[in-house]
Amino acid sequence: MAVVAFWLLFVAFVGAFAGQVARRVQLIAIAPNTFSFDNLGFRVNRFLVDVVFQARTIRERPIAGIAHAFVFWGFVAFGGYTLTEFLRGLGIVDLTHTTWFTAYRLALTPFAVAVLGGILFLLIRRAFVRPVGLGTKVSIESIVIALFIATLMVTYLLTFRMEEGTMAEQVNWWVHMLVILAFMALIPASKHFHLVVSPITVLLKSPELGNLPNLDFEKEQVGLETVKDLGSKSVLDAFTCVECGRCQVNCPAWGAGKELNPKTIILQTKDALLAGGRDRKLGEIYSEKVLWQCTTCGACENQCPVGIEHLPVLIGSRRGLVSNGDAPDYLGAMYNNLERRSNIWGLGYDQRTKFVQSSGLETFDAAKHDVLVWLGCAGSFDADFQKSLRSLFAILRAKEVRFGVLAKERCNGDPAKRTGNEYMFQELANGNIEDLKASGVKKILTSCPHCVKTIGDDYRKFGYEVEIVHTSVYVEELLRQSSAALSGPRETVTYHDPCYLGRYAGKVDEPRNLLTRFGADIVEPERNRDNPYCCGAGGGLLFADKEEEPGTRISDVRFKQLQATGANTVVTACPFCSIMLKGAQASAQADTQFVDLMTYVNGKLQPRA
Ligand code: SF4
Ligand code: SF4
Fold first, then answer.
1. Reduced 3-state DSSP string for 222-276
2. Ligand with an atom nearest the CA of residue 308
3. 177 CB less than 6 Å from ligand 2?
């Protein structure tokens, strides 16, 4: 009788679970395939670190992360126990009196205690502490799930206090099993579905942060316009979100009071998919205005503990808007500049030529030069940044590095790519690749982190591979053996990590090594190293009309964080960070001094030359 009743309940609850899962699997299956297993070694390694050892979960929120890890490890450890009890309940086979099960059951005790402690901590945090990233409302669903997990652990622990076959033991067993069945029926529609799918999502997450595969125009790809255009990985992502809010609290746009919230983007995607209107326009679901607020800093993707990638959705949707001529006016002006003059400011090419000549630069010759210095738009046209490049040239010459520049450079295409103008990006990229190939260059040196990302990662997608190094990395190595280290008075500075250098390229030690070696004591700002707060320039926002921005300017927020260190000197290593932060400094009428890293280092070297 009990077996029949258990079978009926099992079929009902497992049916409810399977029906909901089938709906989600179907939505993934009909989406354009964007799954990839390239670089499998990297993926497996990250799976071990982020899923098995829960490193990303623990890193930002150590106490809550460890509590979560206890629950996860307990969930895995109890898998065999649950299966064995189901086999018994369904009358298939009773293995509960075997020696191995007795030992296994005993070994689960510390896991149960850890899970119970962890889940009670998370329950209190969610119900009473309520961190901002978790949202303002208490999630009843989360409370129920937490109570379910606690009940499972308590009923398991009680088995050690009960005689087998007694009424109390029977009631305890039924409570345990019914909670598991109810839990199964509840999870697919809840954020706890991540228990099932997040290991797969982490494995499928691109090894490259901010991975934006090229559009294939021959296949008439134009980007994401409607729900049915969302790729399979983005659909899987939508069903994986655990609503932890890590992406939200790390997003500079959200932090500066804009409407963009990366967590909301993922949840809106999930709701739109489940609602079924596959022809609904993404620009309406997310709101076009919000889509243009992303700086592409990568903080959301980088912080997400379950492998969700926000940028393919955000930039993919921008691509869809641009292909329909719906880009904001300020981007239209920048695109015009790129089209007419191949640089973001639309300046005459003679200005670059003058800089090249006045700096005594030679045209790159593979037989004569060791490296090619890529000037970039800022290096070619921004007088302020050219001072930094002159410092770089002085360092290279002092160390007898043989370098040259291309006779002609176009913008690398980053502002077009990150704002969704893929056609323009490909035009620029293909022209540059042709010139770079013709020059025979093997190693490129640049002071612009955006050039590092675009030429290094995005050009590779055209089959062009070249070593590209940021100047902070190259010069740090070059001067490592230098006898020029200072012994004089030291200076307190703060260092602003550019997103595309610290987060995207992971280069956080080299700039610091240079600074400390050349007389600086660094005071770290809030948000540093591989999780910096953005300057606000990326994703085309360098060109946005600042007066029309909602909330505070991102650059103002970052400037205040840098000011709060108390250091009077801020060192930067990206021309666009420099432009944005100097703008914020001017608005604040502060006397903070901004110095580019190369200028700082060369300034310390010169007196000893
Ligand atoms: S990339 Fe940066 S600005 Fe864009 S949504 Fe993510 S965290 Fe926010
Ligand atoms: S997208 Fe990732 S980081 Fe953001 S709320 Fe969801 S699970 Fe958390």
1. CCCCEHHHCCHHHHHHHCCCCCCCHHHHHCHHHHCCCCCCHHHHHHHHHHHHHHC
2. 2
3. no
pLDDT at 42: 97
Say if residues 205 and 91 touch (Cβ distance below 8 Å).
no
Q: Which domains does the chain have, with CATH numbers?
A: 2-204 (1.20.950), 217-329 (1.10.1060.10), 341-477 (3.40.50), 483-605 (3.40.50)
- What confidence tens digit (pLDDT) does each residue in 231-241 have? 999 999 999 99
Question: By C-alpha distance, which of 418, 140, 135, 143 is closest to 264?
Answer: 135
| The ligand 1 atom nearest the CA atom of 301 | 6
Kindly give the residue spans of alpha helices, DSSP state H, lying in 125-166. Answer: 140-158
Per-residue confidence (pLDDT) for residue 405, from 0 to 100: 98
In tens, the pLDDT along 518-558 reads 999 999 999 999 999 999 999 999 999 776 677 899 999 99
The three-class DSSP label of residue 53 is coil
Instruction: Check pocket membership of 247 for ligand 2, CB cut-off 6 A.
Output: yes
Cα(210)–Cα(296) distance, rounded to whole angstroms? 8
Length of the chain: 609
Contact 493, 518 (CB under 8 A): no
Strand duo 491-495 + 467-470: pairing: unpaired
Pairing of strands 443-446, 467-470: parallel
Q: Do residues 392 and 447 make contact, with C-beta atoms less than 8 angstroms apart? A: yes
Cβ(132)–Cβ(241) below 8 Å = no
Assess whether pLDDT exceeds 70 at residue 156.
yes
Give the ligand 2 atom nearest the CA of 244. Answer: 8
CB of 243 sitting under 6 A from ligand 2 = yes
Nearest to 142 by CA among 243, 263, 271, 240: 243
CA of 133 to the centre of ligand 2 (A): 9
CA atoms within 13 A on the CB side of 69: 18
- Closest ligand by atom to 261 CA: 1
Which residue's CA lies nearest to atom 6 of ligand 2? 241
Closest listed residue to residue 251, CA positions, set 36, 588, 539: 539
Kindly report, residue by residue over 261-290, the tens digit of the pLDDT.
Answer: 999 999 999 999 999 989 999 999 999 999
- pLDDT confidence band for 482 (50 / 70 / 90): low
Pocket of ligand 1 (CB under 6 A): 250-253, 260, 262, 294-300, 310-311
Q: Looking at ligand 1, which atom is closest to the CA of residue 299?
A: 7
The protein residue whose alpha carbon is closest to atom 2 in ligand 1 is 297
Residue 338 contacts residue 423 (beta carbons within 8 Å):
no
Nearest to 541 by CA among 204, 296, 258, 367: 296
Region 412-422 average pLDDT: 98
- Amino acid letter, 609: A
Distance between CA atoms of 299 and 312, rounded to whole angstroms?
14
The two structure tokens encoding residue 565? 């260190």
Identify the DSSP state of 455.
I
Q: Given this model, what pLDDT does residue 609 score?
A: 44
Q: Is the CB of 476 under 6 A from ligand 2?
A: no
Q: What is the pTM of this model?
A: 0.94
The alpha carbon of 245 and the centre of ligand 2 are apart by a number of angstroms equal to: 5
